[in-house]
Amino acid sequence: MVKNEVVSAIKNSLRSWVCRKGVSSHPALLTDSDFHALAVATTEGMAETPSSEGVREWGSLKELTKNWIVHQRPHVEPGPLGTSDFEHLAALIAAALPDEQSFSSAVKHEPLQDSSEACTVPQSEEDCRVHDSMQLVFAREHLDRCL
After folding, report:
1. Would the CA dihedral through 18, 21, 26, 32 be positive or negative?
2. What is the pLDDT of residue 107?
3. Which domain of life does this protein belong to (predicted)?
4. Helices 32-47 & 4-14, crossing angle to 10 degrees?
5. What pLDDT, in 10s, does the model give residues 13-45?
6. CA dihedral 144, 19, 78, 59 (to 10 degrees)
7. Helix %, strand %, coil % for the chain, to 5?
């Protein structure tokens, strides 16, 4: 059973994600059941024993999100979730459960190092205009469906 604090932590952090869960689905914000499923799958992944190289498999979390294309933040092209995203989810859960030592020590969360993965804020209006139009595809489609 997943604690409400865990689901709330994930919901507060990911509430702006726009996600397409499959080829035939439309982009939409994550639902309460999505947040709960992410919490359960991430908790299960954290409980798994890492491989001999220290790498987690993230079994059920990887399975849950295998077809997802997610637009996580502005000015970043939508894409599938990866290991760094799974570690971020685990860090959110570890922070929501400070009394759980096994979770805190089980996950080592490192900030994103690759500049292509870092969230960049445009410095001028010109920067805003030169971003690739593919970065806004999900946002536009989501808005079209809502309006």
Report:
1. negative
2. 43
3. Bacteria
4. 110
5. 999 999 999 889 999 999 999 999 999 999 999
6. -170
7. 50, 5, 45
Among candidate residues 5, 143, 18, the one with its CA nearest the CA of residue 74: 18
- Tokens coding 64: 């849950």
Q: How far is CA 122 from CA 97, 131, 138, in A?
A: 35, 9, 19
Instruction: Supply φ then ψ for residue 69, to 5 degrees.
Output: -120, 120
Average pLDDT over residues 127-144: 61
Could you tell me the end-to-end alpha-carbon distance of the chain, in angstroms, rounded to an integer?
Answer: 37
What does the pLDDT read at residue 99?
Answer: 61
Instruction: Check residue 54 and give left, alpha or beta (phi > 0: left; psi -120 to 50: alpha).
Output: left
Which one, of 143, 109, 139, lies nearest residue 18 by Cα? 139
3-state secondary structure of 23: coil
Question: Angle between the 83-96 and 4-14 helix axes, to the nearest 10 degrees?
Answer: 130
